[in-house]
């Protein structure tokens, strides 16, 4: 091999190496930068000193405040806030990197929705003295065209993929963050602590209006169908579908919002209320007061919630004396735990009136007659059926 051929081979090898690098290098996703190291908040940001977090955008403000009982929502009368979501938000801020710093002037901030008049969300973290520890401005999401084909019916430009968000940091630097932070756009109801009650194994229930019982249903075992106390109307039978709806009405109950504790009864439908009493197979009893439909909404409150199980243990016939002390202690602890659980839930829920699904209350807001259905029509007896091939006698001809 002569010197010229060797040079050609070396050049070819270099070209192949460059091609292999270009084809196999990691694909950059639009704005990502390998030099992105700075976080959105300083590493020494002391989140434990924060006692107030405010989300402001236009006329919408959400204020989360830390008090003696934990975090609450100012715009919801101090109702407990969902601390886990707040904690995750602060964690994401401390972990998210600056993907790119933006060399833009103040007059161009509006193009990225980084000004209050253009939809920016300002998030402020304050300490107990009211001093702002960090203030961040969240603009619009940073998106890039998706490689996926546009779906039929999609608006032009709608086939995009959000990759991050434009922000102005506490030191006034505009940047792109590697996180969309969709949580800052959520309404105030998102921040409500959604811990609630549920009745999953209904044993008995009754509905009361104006001091009079409308109906009572019960069952002895969890696998039984419900029965309605009292006589069955003539020509009717129990509508098990309606009773099953009552059974499941509070199985997955959720609330949408909380009412002003000082709201007038007529404003939340409680001027025409009914009372639903229920107990489950865990020996927990509930008294739920709910109102009529008002402006498409319905409200309820918990007026009683308690554990009413047996407080004395019946020993087995073959129980050994050495086992009695242990079993008695276990039984006493179970009673204590059950009572404490019910008391804690009642203390948490009883001060509040909740807006709930109209569907859930619609399943229990029934008259007694609505819990029955018509008996199926009896089939015609065989001897009453016309024989095959029988035809009606022809009508006599007109004179």
Write up what this structure looks like.
The chain has two domains: 134 residues; 164 residues, no CATH class. About 5% of the residues have low confidence. The chain is built from five helices and 19 strands. The protein has 399 residues and is an alpha+beta fold. Strands 4-3-2-1-6-7-8-9-5 form a nine-stranded antiparallel β-sheet, with no helix packed on it. Helix content is 20%, strand content 28%.
Binned, the helix content reads 10-25%
Query: Rg from C-alpha positions?
Result: 34 Å
What is the arithmetic mean of pLDDT? Answer: 87
Poorly predicted ranges:
18-36
What structural category do the secondary elements indicate? Answer: alpha+beta
Order of helices and strands: HEEEEHEEEEEEEEEHEEEEHEHE
- In total, the number of strands is 19
Shape: extended
Tell me the strand percentage band: 25-35%
Query: What is the number of helical segments per DSSP (H or I, 4+ residues)?
Result: 5
Biggest beta-sheet profile: 9 strands, antiparallel
Give the end-to-end Cα distance, rounded to a whole number of Å: 128 Å
Main sheet: strand order: 4-3-2-1-6-7-8-9-5
Total discrete domains: 2
């Amino acid at each position: 091999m002569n010197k010229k051929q060797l040079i050609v081979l070396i050049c070819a090898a270099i070209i192949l190496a460059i091609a292999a690098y270009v084809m196999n290098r990691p694909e950059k996703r639009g704005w990502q930068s390998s030099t992105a190291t700075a976080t959105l908040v300083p590493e020494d940001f002391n989140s434990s000193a924060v006692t107030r977090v405010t989300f402001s955008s236009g006329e919408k403000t959400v204020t989360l405040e830390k008090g003696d009982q934990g975090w609450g929502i100012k715009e919801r009368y101090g109702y407990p806030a969902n601390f886990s979501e707040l904690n995750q938000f602060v964690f994401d801020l401390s972990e998210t990197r600056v993907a790119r710093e933006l060399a833009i002037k103040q007059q161009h901030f509006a193009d990225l929705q980084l000004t209050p008049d253009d939809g920016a969300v300002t998030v402020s973290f304050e300490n107990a003295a009211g001093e702002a520890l960090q203030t961040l401005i969240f603009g619009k999401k940073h998106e890039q065209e998706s490689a996926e084909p546009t779906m039929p019916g999609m608006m032009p430009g709608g086939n995009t993929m959000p990759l991050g968000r434009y922000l102005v940091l506490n030191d006034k630097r505009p940047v792109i963050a590697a996180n969309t932070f969709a949580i800052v756009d959520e309404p105030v109801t998102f921040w409500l602590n959604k811990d609630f009650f549920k009745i999953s194994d209904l044993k008995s229930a009754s509905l009361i209006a104006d001091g009079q019982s409308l109906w009572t249903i019960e069952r002895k075992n969890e696998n039984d169908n419900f029965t309605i106390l009292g006589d069955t109307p003539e020509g009717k039978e129990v509508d098990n579908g309606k009773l099953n709806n009552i059974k499941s009405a509070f199985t997955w109950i959720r609330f949408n919002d909380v009412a002003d504790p000082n709201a007038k009864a007529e404003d939340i439908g409680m001027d025409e209320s009914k009372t639903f009493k229920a107990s489950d197979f865990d020996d927990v009893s509930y008294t739920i007061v709910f109102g009529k439909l008002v402006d498409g909404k319905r409200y309820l409150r918990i007026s009683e919630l308690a554990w009413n199980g047996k407080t004395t243990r019946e020993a087995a016939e073959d129980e050994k004396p050495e086992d009695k002390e242990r079993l008695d202690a276990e039984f006493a602890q179970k009673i204590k735990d059950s009572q404490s659980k019910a008391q804690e839930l009642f203390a948490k829920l009883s001060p509040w009136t909740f807006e709930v699904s109209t569907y859930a209350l619609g399943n229990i807001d029934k008259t007694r007659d609505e819990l029955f259905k018509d008996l199926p029509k009896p089939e015609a007896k065989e001897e009453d059926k016309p024989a095959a091939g029988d035809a009606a006698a022809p009508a006599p001809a007109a004179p």
